[in-house]
Write a structure and sequence with these properties.
49% of the residues lie in helices and 11% in strands. By secondary structure, the chain is α/β, with parallel strands linked by helices. The two termini are 40 Å apart. The model has no long low-confidence stretch (mean pLDDT 96). This is Putative iron-containing alcohol dehydrogenase.
């Protein structure tokens, strides 16, 4: 068996997958053209009520209608899309005779849209496809338009759905859920407030960090991840600060959407690690925002993982702006990296602990047990068992 940790990168097989992408102001206006190109004359439009209230859904429906595409809106999407919601949306898709899906929103509408595609093409409950490469048949044509800069769902081979019975988020990882087209229009992200901007931006940062230290990283994903980190360090504070101002900061929004895209392509191909495994457990158990969960866990996982990817974490710290001398001892370098991440979190207003969000000492065993079973643990740079994950949860909650 090969030892991939010591072999040159070019001896290791790596694949890279991504959808067709259009980036820039006005990208939304191309939704009808791409639906037509994909032979989808009647589409399910998956979004949420909040976006309908600020006219983005209305504009998308107008664009589709102008191209002769009939739209069937589905706005019943919760912040953490659930298995029952996916089943209901899939039934509606079939009843209406849809031929494709257009998702407009953050990660929740896009993940629900992917789940609808899985169910309608494979004719089985969505949770039965949990894990890696378990989806046999590709879904119908899927076009995604992100309205947040963080999830990367518009380019990823991940779909995250909450298992309501077991109170855990389930990861479905399959090339079949990669959207056909991603339309990235920075203007769509300008309606985010400061808190959502911070949470989704730190989600993108976590994607980049975990992709860079993943056991499945490659030169392509490394390049994307490092550039995303630099963009986020520079532009996330600007985007958060301007989010409460009188006018959107289009440059900051564009840079953050590009960073999210880069991080999304990186993690889709390099996969993730313990932060996401723990965030899936935490978010499903307490129904918490995914980006916030990642943000509160990231620095604590870095402390645990550092010895398993020291050179890469040093590079991460430098990409985020830390001055880390080449001859700095490991302990010093680790603290500099963690301090830089914590400073960015504080700058954008993320100062909570897990305890303030409802984590109790009694819940630690459950959270750690579910995290240990998440497929994202397979590519964490060093192994972590249930007790290791329990200790990380405890530290992030302030119990240790």
């Amino acid at each position: 068996m090969r030892n991939h940790s010591v072999e040159p990168w070019f001896t290791q097989l790596r694949k890279f997958v991504a959808p067709e992408m259009v980036f820039g102001l006005g990208a939304l206006e191309m939704a009808g053209r791409f639906a037509g190109n994909l032979r989808a004359s009647r589409v399910l439009v998956v979004s949420d009520a909040a976006l309908a209230g600020i006219s983005w859904v209305e504009r998308l429906l107008e664009v589709l209608a102008a191209a002769g595409v009939e739209a069937k809106p589905w706005l019943q999407v919760s912040a953490n899309p659930k298995d029952g919601e996916a089943a209901a949306a899939a039934e509606f898709y079939l009843q209406e005779g849809c031929e494709g899906i257009v998702a407009l929103g953050g990660g929740s509408p896009m993940d629900l849209a992917k789940a609808v595609g899985i169910i309608t093409s494979n004719q089985a409950p969505v949770l039965s496809f949990a894990g890696v490469d378990n989806v046999e048949k590709p879904g119908p044509p899927l076009i995604c338009l992100p309205t947040t800069a963080g999830t990367g769902a518009e380019v990823s081979q991940f779909a995250i759905i909450t298992d309501t019975a077991n109170r855990v988020k389930v990861a479905i990882v399959s090339k079949t859920v990669i959207p056909d087209v991603a339309l990235l229009d920075p203007e769509l992200t300008c309606t985010m407030g400061p808190e959502l901007t911070a949470h989704t931006g730190l989600d993108a940062l976590t994607h980049a960090v975990e992709a860079y230290v993943s056991n499945a990283h490659s030169p392509l994903t490394d390049m994307l991840a490092l550039e995303a980190m630099g963009r986020i360090a520079r532009w996330l504070p600007v985007a958060v600060q301007s989010a409460s101002g009188p006018a959107p900061h289009l440059e900051a929004r564009s840079e953050m959407l590009l960073a999210s895209l880069q991080a999304g392509m990186a993690f889709s191909n390099a996969i993730l690690g313990a932060v996401h495994a723990m965030a899936h457990s935490l978010g499903g158990y307490l129904d918490l925002p995914h980006g916030l969960c990642n943000a509160l866990l990231l620095d604590h996982v870095i402390l645990y993982n550092f010895s398993g990817a020291e050179a890469r974490y040093r590079a991460i710290g430098r990409a985020l702006g830390a001055h880390i001398p080449d001859d700095a001892p490991a302990d010093e370098a680790r603290e500099l990296v963690v301090a830089t991440v914590r400073q960015l979190k504080q700058t954008v207003g993320v100062t909570q602990s897990l305890a303030t969000l409802g984590v109790t000492p009694e819940s630690l065993d459950t959270l750690a047990g579910k995290a240990a079973q998440d497929p994202c643990m397979l590519t964490n740079p060093i192994p972590a068992d249930v007790q290791d994950l329990r200790r990380i949860f405890a530290k992030a909650a302030g119990f240790e």
